Amino acid sequence: MKKAPLLRSYTLFYLLFLYGPIILLPIFAFNDSRVVAFPLNGFTLQWFNEMLADQNLRNAAKNSLIIALSVASISTVLGIFAARASVRYRFPGKGPILGMVMLPLVLPEMIVAMALLVVLLSIGIPLSLFTVILGQVLICTPFAVAILTSAFQSLDRSLEEAALDLGETPLSTFRLIVLPLVMPGILASFLICFTISFDEFIIANFLGSGQPILSVYIFGQFRFPAKVPSMLALGTLLVLLSIILLGIAEYFRRRGIAKAGGKDSGGFL
Amino acid sequence: MAQTPNSEARAGLKLISPTALYVILLLAVPLATVLVYSVMTGARGSVSLPITAENYAELWSRPVYGYIMFKSLMVALVVTFATVLLAYPVAYFVSFHVKPERKSLWLFLITIPFWTSYIIRVSLWFVILGFGGVLDSALAAIGLEPLNVASYSILSIIIVLAHAYAPFAVLPIFVSLEKVDRSLLEAGQDLGESRWVTFLRVTLPLSMPGVIAAALIVFIPTVGDYVTPELVGDGKEPMIANLIETQLLKLNNFAQGSAFAVASMLMVGIVSVVFVLLNRRFIGGQK
């Protein structure tokens, strides 16, 4: 490898730009001042205590958890159907159907949210946590399909055929052979959908009808300067949580590829 | 086991049907509804016949709407250009100068900020750039004048968006750079070209598909961004998404909101097609 000091320092600088706001989170979450500015004042746990005591916040976190668990489960199941069908079978309309499933990746999220909102309001379905789940599944499913497609692709077809030859039914083959081998992909998909749903704002805001949902709650609180420090404390915890979940997802994804004897092409996206 | 094409098709369709049904009911039908609503007569909270072009005419006749659409487009183009320009050297570095076994670690590092709460990252910029915020107070601490970036709403919106979508730009460029045949570069240099000229004439054109993909991936969500103008721009510089929200939720005008949505999708579509055509032209006859 050629050394390129200039490019290297540029890349490190770029990483600093990317991480800048996130690095500030813990610094000001522990800073003993209601004003988020330099110079730093001293160490405090006050903001974490204030955050933990906030009943509305707990409520919002509970709702977000319910949403994220449901969205991750539904998206992953829908993802399994679509990914398995796309890898294993040829059928008419495959292109258009998969295109439609992946469409939210290239459609402004606002459009997805408003289209669904218009229909729900027109047919008189009241907005609730349930409608948020319906919308977020659309956003998360393409990610699930992408992850699971690579998991199903690295599956060796002959293993399935061997099981069928040995007298297993297609269903039991799926349960005994296919499922265990793609399990790491399924877990990675679940964790990533969970993370996306937990952070998602636009659909939660438009289809949640003012229900306390974590991202919507944070959005509102940042308008009040007095609330900012405890939001930074919350942000510190959330960033930590995201990194842990993604670390686990990445571990499963790599293990899945290694198990199937594939080659790691790096990254989720 | 040999399957007849027919039974294979049936099995595939059966398997994908839950997912297909979900996206048809909750995505295709709503999008079609928006299309239909956009040409219907709007009233508060409802739409009715007759079919009319009134909503689009309204959009055309009020200069403020045209201004907001144009501004959103310009902001998105500037953000796209800046993001791709900043990301290219990073993707180049990871592809050409990082050891193969370390590449996925670097990519993971670059993508982590993308996976951490968008709403918190945007809100943090608000705290950083705001009046007496982190940036200005840090400058004051070392005896410099405050920049007061937040008072330039559009500038802060551009900075925040360029930050938010940065990882999206690095990855596609990286993927296309990985595909560049390294022996072509050696050939270029063997034939006496300098490293810089080799880059301009070989590497850059070959990586154009990745650059175009990156531009599209950044451009599309940027046009429709709602949070950043609302939070960082303090609502003073509404973009398309804020306009749609006002029509839908505040004025309850489904027909007009739908027309805005369709118009903005058309705009995004046209720009995307231009990007793709540029790409075709750039790579010439090469397949």
TrEMBL record, chain A:
Natural source organism: Tabrizicola piscis
Transmembrane intervals: 12-30, 65-85, 97-120, 127-152, 172-194, 201-219, 231-252
Domain of life: Bacteria
UniProt record similarity statement: Belongs to the binding-protein-dependent transport system permease family. CysTW subfamily.
Keyword Transit peptide: no
One Gene Ontology cellular component: plasma membrane
Keyword line: Cell membrane, Membrane, Transmembrane, Transmembrane helix, Transport
Biological process terms in GO annotation: transmembrane transport
Subcellular location: Cell membrane
InterPro entries: Bact_Polyamine_Transport, MetI-like, MetI-like_sf
The protein's name in its UniProt record: ABC transporter permease
Topological category with respect to the lipid bilayer: Multi-pass membrane protein
Main location: membrane
Domain ABC transmembrane type-1, first and last residues per copy: 61-249
From TrEMBL, chain B:
Keyword Membrane attributed: yes
Subcellular locations according to the entry: Cell membrane
Location of the ABC transmembrane type-1 domain: 69-279
Keywords: Cell membrane, Membrane, Transmembrane, Transmembrane helix, Transport
PROSITE patterns assigned to the protein according to its UniProt record, in alphabetical order: ABC_TM1
Any Pfam family matching the protein: BPD_transp_1
Membrane topology value: Multi-pass membrane protein
Bilayer-crossing regions: 20-40, 68-94, 152-177, 198-220, 258-278
GO cellular component: plasma membrane
Keyword hit for Ribosomal protein: no
GO biological process: transmembrane transport
PANTHER family in alphabetical order: INNER MEMBRANE ABC TRANSPORTER PERMEASE PROTEIN YDCU-RELATED, INNER MEMBRANE ABC TRANSPORTER PERMEASE PROTEIN YDCU-RELATED-RELATED
Similarity remark: Belongs to the binding-protein-dependent transport system permease family. CysTW subfamily.
Official protein name in the record: ABC transporter permease
